[in-house]
Amino acid sequence: MSRKRGSIMLKKLLYMTGLISTFGLLSKVYYDTNFIKTASVTLLTDKLKKGNNYSILQISDLHNKTFGKNHQRILKEIKKAKTDLIVITGDLIDRKTTKLDSVILLVKEMRKVNPNILYITGNHEWDNPLTSELLLQLKKQHVQVLDDKEVHMQANEGIIHIIGTGRKLAKSEKLIHLLEHANPDNFILLLSHIPNVVKHLSGRPIDLILSGHTHGGQIRFPYVGSVVVPDQGVFPAFDQGIYEWEEGKLLYIDSGAGTTRLPVRFLNQSQISIIHLIGNR
To answer: Residues in domain Calcineurin-like phosphoesterase (predicted)?
Structure first.
């Protein structure tokens, strides 16, 4: 084989390798962005008796995204989950959302699967002029808006005391009042869209916080993970998953279902989460 022919063959090989790699990369981005998965977390707690378990489906950071026609893909995952409760931890819509039809349709279909739905607002709701209408529509669908409010859920013989925080986060006098008067014998769950709330809650009787907001970095890199997330800057301390933020107190950050700014995910597939609370007393 001549040197010229060998050079041409090498160029063709490099071209095909680049083409295949680019196709693989774009396919991965498309899949991670448009196909939903369900993450599962199991937590033991001595606030519930053995055999006395409770399951929660968490949906966060949808940003008005749809998964298939009439939300078929995400509804399939919700139906499979069969949890006791659904919580939506903010950014159901995006700050640029101008129509609510899509998310209201999703909520209607979710209620057919599980009528027990709690909701707190996120920063994109705080910036969207349609939020008042969204809250009204959610209440019409019997979704309980839990910003600076509380609810007690029965878990057989145990109590799951759920408190929500909204725009004012830990600076809310109502939130502090609710935490100060919470019974520490119950399992105390805080819903906070922004995980940085932990900076303001040291010493408060909280067993678990469910958050979103970070998107898990949205785009992640091999061996590095997320580089930047909102409010935490470069190489964040809390991006996704479970953390012990104070002794015996846990924070779970769901990496979310939708996207914002860049409409892509990479190595960070769109997801919802199931949190299994397992009695261990």
So the answer is: 55-216
Domains of the chain with bracketed CATH: 35-279 (3.60.21.10)
User: DSSP string of 33-68?
Assistant: HHS-EEEEEEEEETTS-TT--EEEEEE---TT---S
Say how far apart CA 241 and CA 3 lie, in whole Å: 54
Phi (first) and psi of residue 162, to 5 degrees: -110, 125
Tokens 């008042």, residue located: 132
Contact 239, 251 (CB under 8 A): no
Measured distance CA(159)–CA(112) in Å, rounded = 25
Using DSSP bridges, classify how beta strands 117-120 and 144-145 pair: parallel, antiparallel or unpaired: parallel
Q: Which of 173, 216, 212 is nearest to 194 (CA)?
A: 212
143 HSE (CA, 13 A, CB side): 27
Q: What is the pLDDT of residues 78-116, one digit of tens each?
A: 999 999 999 999 999 999 999 999 999 999 999 999 999
Sign of CA dihedral 153, 158, 165, 120: negative
Phi and psi of 150, rounded to 5°? Answer: -140, 160
Check: CB of residue 47 under 8 Å from CB of residue 280. Answer: no
Residue appearing with tokens 């909280």? 206
Q: For the segment 168-225, what is each residue's pLDDT rounded down to a tens digit?
A: 776 788 899 999 999 999 999 999 999 999 988 999 999 999 999 999 999 898 888 8
**In 58-117, where does DSSP find H-type helix?**
72-81, 101-113
Write out pLDDT tens, residues 246-256.
999 999 999 99
Per-residue b or e along 97-133, where b marks 16 or more CB atoms closer than 10 Å to that residue's CB: beebebbbebbebbeebbebbbbbbbbbbeebeebee
Sign of CA dihedral 169, 174, 180, 186: negative
Enter the tokens of residue 147: 């910003």
